[in-house]
Automatic annotation (TrEMBL):
Organism, as annotated: Paraburkholderia ribeironis
Name of the molecule in the record: Transcriptional regulator, TetR family
DNA-binding region extent: 35-54
Signal peptide interval: none
GO terms, molecular function: DNA-binding transcription factor activity; transcription cis-regulatory region binding
Pfam families found in the cross-reference section: TetR_C_7, TetR_N
Keywords of this entry: DNA-binding, Repressor, Transcription, Transcription regulation
Keyword Lipid metabolism: no
InterPro entries on file: DNA-bd_HTH_TetR-type_CS (IPR023772), Homeodomain-like_sf (IPR009057), HTH-type_TetR-like_transc_reg (IPR050109), HTH_TetR (IPR001647), Tet_transcr_reg_TetR-rel_C_sf (IPR036271), TetR_C_Proteobacteria (IPR039536)
HTH tetR-type domain boundaries: 12-72
Length: 204
């Protein structure tokens, strides 16, 4: 009889296989043409196994985006520190964010998500809601800095979205929508520093 540890390893392996197969399917066929049947066939598992791990295609897509986010980040985001300079902390967070936005797999799937969202605004709202179930690192940091009185805003979410927009205008939207090449390290550093300085000039 298999031990629970062996069973867990098998379950984990199947989950990894499903996510890998789903990424390939979404990129090859687009969101609408990808079915749970095709994902199951590509992963060499039953359709029931796919549904055991992910209740819907939307949930599976959200899980992929989360996994890419986690993989690009390398561990938990640094939390707000009252004893550290704001600019240093902010640059650290922006560097993590830019690494994700520069990841080719993430950009490819973002294109799939955007194309799917254009065809179905309702689905786009669902994807955004699922992605928003986990508070963004930058938002959590701005909220904590505001609570500590070092960032002056009565709407931390709005301020955090402004900050993200400063970064994405250079390091996400041109690559996703216009096929521009990902930026190099020097360009990313410049974007992070300019965004941090503008944000702190307004809110610190």
């Amino acid at each position: 009889m298999e031990s629970s540890a062996t069973h867990q390893r098998l379950t984990d392996r199947k989950r990894v296989a499903i996510i890998g197969a789903a990424i390939e399917e979404f990129l090859a066929a687009g969101y609408d043409a990808t079915s749970m049947d095709r994902i199951a066939a590509r992963a060499n598992v039953s359709k029931r196994t796919v549904y055991n791990h992910f209740p819907s295609k939307e949930a599976l897509f959200a899980a992929i985006l989360h996994q890419l986010w986690d993989a690009s980040q390398g561990g938990d985001a640094p939390a707000y520190r009252a004893d550290k300079p704001l600019r240093t902390q902010l640059l650290n967070l922006l560097d993590r964010k830019l690494r994700l936005l520069n990841d080719e797999s993430f950009l490819s799937l973002a294109r799939v998500a955007i194309a799917a969202g254009i065809h179905s605004p309702e689905r786009a709202r669902d994807m955004v809601a699922r992605m928003g179930e986990r508070e963004e690192d930058l938002t959590a940091w701005v909220r904590a800095a505001a609570a500590d009185g070092r960032i002056k805003t009565d709407d931390p979410l709005f301020a955090a979205l402004q900050l993200q927009a400063l970064v994405k205008a250079f390091a996400f939207w041109p690559q996703v929508t216009m096929g521009q090449v990902p930026l190099d390290g020097k360009q990313l550093k410049r974007i992070a520093e300019a965004a941090a300085d503008m944000f702190l000039a307004r809110y610190a």
